[in-house]
Amino acid sequence: MTKGLVAGAIMPHGSTIPVLAGEQAGIMSQLHQACLTAGITISNCEPDCILVITPHGMVLDDMFTVCLFNHATGTLEGEGGNISGEYDIDIEYSDHLWRQLQSYGVPAASLVPDAGEENTQFMPLDWGALIPLWYCTHSSAVKPSIVVVTPCPSLNLQQHRDFGAAAARAAHILGRKIAIVASSD
Which of 8, 117, 124, 135 is least surrounded, with the fewest CB atoms within 10 Å of its CB? Predict the structure, then answer.
């Protein structure tokens, strides 16, 4: 069984899902179908965890932010209805990723719940994370855990390369099957 990085995609987070797109669903239909295909491809790889990189999470100056909450949830409303999702966060992988980023010299911060509330607080998911995750998990019988990372736009290309190496190394160390989804406008 393959471990490490098993799939990857760049996915939009606009109103591609018909219930969110409403009257715009027609012009979004090709993009919606492409996202469905990408999501099915990722789901078929049966990842243990989906690492979603979103530009709309907690952005801190000149660093990657790695979420270390136990759970994440979100609901989005559109013209034709809403979507929602609730996910477990792979804390062990998140922690290993954060440590690998440190070893690669990549600036990173961990986003943690308030002290004493680790098991009760949910990290909120916005468009940037929830839409790609919906495509990757809505038809899955078993939802993989997730990891949410937000890069600062000022990070350079080498830091992004090192992020990828750190993500792969953390997956290898833990023997996890990881899918990476970069969420984009």
Answer: 117
**Domain 4-184: which CATH class?**
alpha beta
- As separate numbers, helices (DSSP H) first and strands (DSSP E) second, the chain gives 5, 9
pLDDT tens track for 85-125 = 999 999 999 999 999 999 999 989 887 776 665 556 788 89
- Report the chain's C-alpha Rg in angstroms: 16
Q: pTM of the full predicted structure?
A: 0.90
* pLDDT recorded at residue 48: 95
Question: Is-contact 49 96, C-beta < 8 A?
Answer: no
Residue 129 in tokens: 């994370």
